[in-house]
Amino acid sequence: MAANFFSGRRGISLLACGTQIFVSLTVAISECILITLMCFDRYVAICHPLRYPVLVSPRECSRMAAASWAAGALTSLGHTAFTLHFRICSPREIPHFFCEVMAVLRIVCEDTSSYEKAVVVTSIFVLLLPLSFILSSYLLILLAILRMNSPEGRSKALATCSSHLCVVGLYFGPGMFIYMRPGSAKTPRLNQGLFLFGTVLTPLLNPLAYSLRNKEVLSALKKLMRRFQPSS
């Protein structure tokens, strides 16, 4: 994007377009799985603390991370190959700021309705099922928190989980709206806005969401807000 902006050249080869689709999908799918595994980490830590060293050992974490990236890469490879096998119409202008599946389908000359259904099915496995697992886990976590006798422990558990839930909402919301909405390929402007939200705003807000449970960060944030408040 930076190269295109400064050079004025906005052309892209088929290989580079395919690479963009593959990399972006691999990262997105892997992150969905990793966010779900982070929920599993919190579930075990709060509901089964004595089993935590066994279930979430460094070795198991490495395996889960490797499985996430492998699943993301394999799923992405299939969708990249299938998207690029379609015949592209002229003018070959992609209505997006980078090569993305729904944007490429917009300029295809063939009927893509069957493939769009396949995208929805993939989204069910990548987005809807993990989100259902996350919400179910957090329901069990909430019940476990309510049974805690220590107010300090309850507060700490809620702070840990709330930051992760913020990230889940920021990440899964736009993704489901883009890939699970009927006729999504026909609304390029809306998709661009949602992708901008997912690729720029979500990473920007991630450090803030994860650090809000830190007392020092909260204290610094309150001081900053007081500094900008108009004096009476």
From TrEMBL:
Name a Pfam family for this protein. Answer: 7tm_4
Can you name a GO cellular component term?
Answer: plasma membrane
- Give the transmembrane ranges: 118-145, 157-180, 192-212
Q: Which Gene3D superfamilies does this chain map to?
A: Rhodopsin 7-helix transmembrane proteins
Q: Show the GO MF annotations.
A: G protein-coupled receptor activity; olfactory receptor activity
Q: Where does this one sit in the cell?
A: Cell membrane
Name all G-protein coupled receptors family 1 profile domain ranges: 1-210
The entry's keywords: Cell membrane, G-protein coupled receptor, Membrane, Olfaction, Receptor, Sensory transduction, Transducer, Transmembrane, Transmembrane helix
Chief subcellular site?
A: membrane
Task: Classify the protein's membrane topology as the record does.
Answer: Multi-pass membrane protein
Which family is this protein grouped under?
Belongs to the G-protein coupled receptor 1 family.
Put simply, this protein is called Olfactory receptor
Native species: Tupaia chinensis
**Which taxonomic lineage is given here?**
Eukaryota, Metazoa, Chordata, Craniata, Vertebrata
